[in-house]
Amino acid sequence: MARRKITLAFIKNQTNRKASFKKRRKGLIKKVEEISTLCDVEACAVILNPYDEKIEIWPSPEGALAVLKRYGAAVSGIHHRPPKEMDQESFILHRVKKNREKLDRLLMENKRNDLSWFMYRCMAGTNSLHNLDERERAEMCRLINQRIRDVDSKIENLMKEGVWWCGCGGSTSSSGSASSGGSASSASCCRRRGEHGELHADSDRARVQWASLDIDALPYPHLFTGTGSGAHR
After folding, report:
1. Looking at the chain, which terminus has fewer C-beta neighbours within 10 angstroms, N or C?
2. How many domains does the chain have?
3. Which residues are bridge partners to 58 per DSSP?
4. 47: domain range?
5. Rg of the chain taking only CA atoms, in angstroms
């Protein structure tokens, strides 16, 4: 038979209240003793009897005092730490700040993606840098310079491994032989890679020359073809 659910409310009848206190006091001390014995933890119980001046202490006044001293030292150390708890207003402000930072990161990522697509369309000849304002040109130049650094880093890693690829027709190895349709002359040509400088926002002073562009190899090739939604109109 299931136990009857007890309603936690003040017992108005004094006789019943006193009987319940006596019963539950013994149960509480028994539970403290059990957890101390079974789990090998320091615990104590201090009960102020509302019906007389007697104070019931478990396990003993000395044992309870030792536990309370440890508790006081622990609380004192916590008070010297930065508070981790927040009220409702501080919690909401903290969440708003975090969400705003996340939104800023997403907006920046979307902006970079838009500039990347625009850059690919410029490479394909379906758009022009003249359509950008001065701030967007500066961002575009930073993006292109980052792409160049990424390509340089990739080439360096491939050369360290002894294999690299170029647009002359194939991959080459450290021995100088060409593969995948490349010739020895083209391979030797690829080793002499020229240095480049940083791009500037002023397109009149710095031009990017693109050759042998393979549109199908670019991300989102539909943006650069006449049938795609991003085609030049």
Report:
1. N
2. 2
3. 45
4. 14-85
5. 38
What's the token pair of residue 194?
A: 């020229």
Q: What angle do CA 56, 61, 63 make, to 5 degrees?
A: 120
Q: Kindly tell me the sign of the dihedral angle through the C-alpha atoms of 177, 180, 183, 187.
A: negative
Structure-token match 């969400």, residue found: 99
| Number of neighbours of residue 185 by Cβ within 10 angstroms | 11
Last residue of one domain, picked from the residues 141, 159, 177: 159
- d(C-alpha 24, C-alpha 15), whole Å: 14
**Are the CB atoms for 230 and 121 separated by under 8 Å?**
yes
The Cα 212–Cα 128 span in angstroms is 18
Residue-level pLDDT at 191:
43
pLDDT in tens, 54-107: 888 999 999 999 999 988 888 776 555 555 556 777 888 888 999 999 999 999
Q: Indicate the residue among 54, 85, 116 that finishes a domain.
A: 85
CA distance 3 to 21: 20
Give the residues across from 55 on adjacent strands.
48
Other beta carbons less than 10 A from residue 148's beta carbon: 15
Pick the closest to residue 52 from 23, 21, 20, 12 (CA basis): 21
Please check whether residues 20 and 38 belong to one and the same domain: yes
The per-residue pLDDT for range 37-62, each reduced to its tens digit, is 999 999 999 998 888 778 889 999 99
Stretch 112-135: mean pLDDT, rounded? 80
Residues 20 and 81 both lie in one domain = yes
* CA–CA gap between residue 107 and residue 77 (Å, rounded): 43
